[in-house]
Amino acid sequence: MPDQSAPPIVKERLVFGQGFIRDAWYFAALSDDLKAGKLQRYEILGEPVLLARDTNGKAYAIRDICPHRAAPLSAGKMIPDPKTGQPVVQCPYHGWTFGTQGGCTAVPSLTADQPMDVERIRVRSYAVKEQQGMVWIYMTADARRPAEPDHEPPVLPGVVGGKPIIVESMDFDSHIDHAVVGLMDPAHGPYVHQQWWWRSSKKQLEKAKAFEPRELGFAMVRHAPSKNSRAYRILGGAPATEITFRLPGMRYEHIEIGERQILGLTCLTPVHTTKTRITQIFWSDHAIFRAIAPIFKYGAKAFLKQDGDMVNLQNEGLKYDPSLLWIDDADTQAKWYQQLKKEWVAHRSEERPFANPLKPATLKWTS
Hints:
Blueprint: E1 24-30, E2 39-44, E3 47-53, E4 59-63, E5 77-80, E6 87-90, E7 97-99, E8 104-106, E9 125-131, E10 134-139, E11 166-172, H1 176-184, H2 189-192, E12 206-214, E13 217-223, E14 240-246, E15 250-257, E16 260-272, E17 275-284, H3 287-291, H4 293-318, H5 332-349, E18 361-366
Antiparallel strand pairs: 1-10, 2-3, 3-4, 4-9, 5-6, 6-7, 7-8, 9-10, 11-17, 12-13, 12-18, 13-14, 14-15, 15-16, 16-17
């Protein structure tokens, strides 16, 4: 018989543009963003999160609300616990302190004759993993369920781990589903991104790209860049690129030019239902790329702004909740995303391994 005491599994709605993938890793911050002893407030999937690095150098995350009177714990300070010497967060309102795993360690207003088991007081904690210079946070489906992850954050290929050459971030007024679809849309480039140095807006080509399933997603398998992609020519040699998408919202492009590499990572982190943070990060050991990085940084920022402007324009139509028309082959990646998301929810609720529903395919479009 099922355990009647176990909390119910939370099922997300499958409607496009609603709900979030949970029990999953999301990009939270770069390692360099977290300074020892500094408390920082984030909002992730609509939840207030205190993300910080303790004075021992370890990253951690707890819910950024004191259970006493709801003051943000991030507005307090990190102090050594008087009893153990371990770092604790002190609430700015009444001085309650909490360990980095969320347990209360002290309620200063209590007198000696007022016994209270303060250790029974807790704030929600989140599993955090720091690797390759990035901090990932595991967002669970139910605060009452154990927060221990059953899988690891992604390990990226190539030259990741050192200091990034370019980092750009912007908040889009969009649910993550629309942001993901915009990220993988191959046909909007000639109309939204019309930089002369990137791609001709006049000369569009018919393209055919091979795709195959990958862990929690899919990849456009390694190929030579399109002939109308001008920026690649600057790198010299014969670039070969592979573009991978992985749930819940990560896209990375790995470019090889001989023995040199470039990795461009885009992470989508939901702030709440109508805001998504887009973070673009680039690493490279290619001398030419490093030399033109200031120009490329300007271009990356321009791309984000153009996409953001289009999101705002799209919102004018979305507020009427219209039906959306998806076509083959240009929108097939968007359809795949919805299939992957559906399988994610199904495998969590049915407590079975994730089974990638996608098959190898070649898609064609003009752009």
